[in-house]
Design goal:
The radius of gyration is 20 Å and the shape is globular. The chain is built from 22 helices and no strands. By secondary structure, it is mainly alpha-helical. It has a domain of 253 residues. Helices cover 67% and strands 0% of the residues.
Length: 364
């Protein structure tokens, strides 16, 4: 019995690694293409300098001010620094791969043991590739894989009534991506509905406290406790649902507006179908409410914080069908083509990245 329980997890982790390897396949002779994909160079700088960015850093050709780097939260670059003995660029990808492996096991166990879903193996396989941007960012120098690993850990701990551990994991998730802050109200609502003692709910204060600690660090560097939000000023300029739509229409990008309407619809419907699972339902409710009000054309990336729940668990009955299994194979091929096409187009300029490696003292 024991080997039977372990085997699916091993196969799923192998599928996770294989998926990333397929993303790297066209670039194996030129991995710098992957290393320089945004936001990898920024996190590489933070991992190496611990936010002590010098005025001659080559990346300042893009962002102009060293304080810009404070918009990047510390958990991912610290993890990269911890594995830097493999080489800093290599460590970026290794952190993403290891975090994806952890997230895979946690998602599978939630599906199988907590939510009691049919076909947890196939749902987890779909989780690894849906949506395409998740495949892209879990394979590059990005925070998404580490964030989801910590978020899934927090949810698993909470589902097991381990509120203190869930709060610690949630605090670490928040220090990876600010989306983790939504774990606190989600857990709080569930505790309230369960009529739990106030003492247990007090642990949830660790989640915003962790973010406040980082804001204090920003204040020691810049004098502004809310420097993180200052760097996000454009995204907070019209803090209301679909607040950036007038700008899209002004630019004549009405086709993008339609895409965002449909994206919001899919995530909203998926969230509504999570009611049997109160923890992830409330987490997605708060995430959706937050991100619908953020003025950015990059919703498809921001929504990744709730994609495993709203898209995979929310549409579990649609996914677990013969028709979807047939469609899934060509879908993965198209998702890989998407990754191969995007990576060379969205990175630091090759000469600037080469100069950055020399500047940071990590060029070979």
């Amino acid at each position: 019995m024991k080997s039977g329980r372990v085997r699916p997890e091993i196969l799923l982790v192998a599928a996770a690694v294989a998926g990333s390897f397929l993303v790297y396949l066209p670039f194996l002779g030129q991995m710098a293409e992957v290393y320089r994909f945004w936001d990898g160079p920024n996190y590489l700088t933070i991992a190496r300098t611990l936010y002590d960015v010098k005025p001659d850093n080559p990346l300042l050709a893009y962002v102009h001010e060293p304080r810009y780097f404070l918009v990047h939260l510390p958990m991912y670059p610290l993890a990269v620094r911890a594995l830097a003995f493999f080489g800093y660029p290599q460590a970026m990808l290794l952190v993403s791969l290891l975090a994806t492996a952890v997230a895979t096991v946690l998602f599978y166990r939630l599906c199988r043991d907590v939510w009691k879903l049919a076909s947890p193996e196939f749902l987890t396989l779909v989780f690894l590739f849906l949506p395409p941007r998740w495949l892209l960012y879990r394979s590059t120098g990005s925070t998404e894989a580490l964030y989801l690993a910590l978020t899934l850990a927090a949810i698993l701990f909470f589902e097991r009534s381990q509120v203190a551990r869930a709060s610690v994991a949630g605090a670490l998730a928040t220090l990876t991506r600010i989306s983790g802050l939504m774990l606190a109200p989600a857990f709080g609502v569930v505790l309230l509905l369960r009529r739990e003692r106030l003492r247990r709910a007090a642990w949830l204060l660790l989640i915003p406290a962790a973010l406040a600690g980082y804001f204090w660090f920003c204040a020691t560097r810049t004098g502004n406790f809310f420097e993180y939000f200052s760097q996000h000023g454009d995204k907070m300029s019209a803090f209301l649902p679909f607040g950036f739509f007038p700008e899209l229409f002004r630019k004549g990008l009405y086709h993008q507006a339609e895409f965002h309407i449909l994206l919001a619809l899919v995530y909203a419907v998926g969230t509504s179908r999570l009611k049997p699972f109160p923890v992830v339902f409330w987490y997605c409710v708060f995430e959706l409410a937050l991100h619908l009000c953020i003025s950015t054309e990059d919703w498809s990336r921001y929504f990744l914080a709730m994609a495993p729940f709203a898209l995979v668990v929310g549409f579990r009955d649609v996914i677990d069908t013969r028709a979807f299994r047939w469609i899934f194979v060509p879908y993965v091929a198209v998702a890989l083509f998407y990754c191969w096409s995007v990576i060379p187009l969205n990175g630091a300029r090759p000469d600037i990245f080469a100069d950055l490696l020399v500047h940071l003292g990590i060029a070979r």
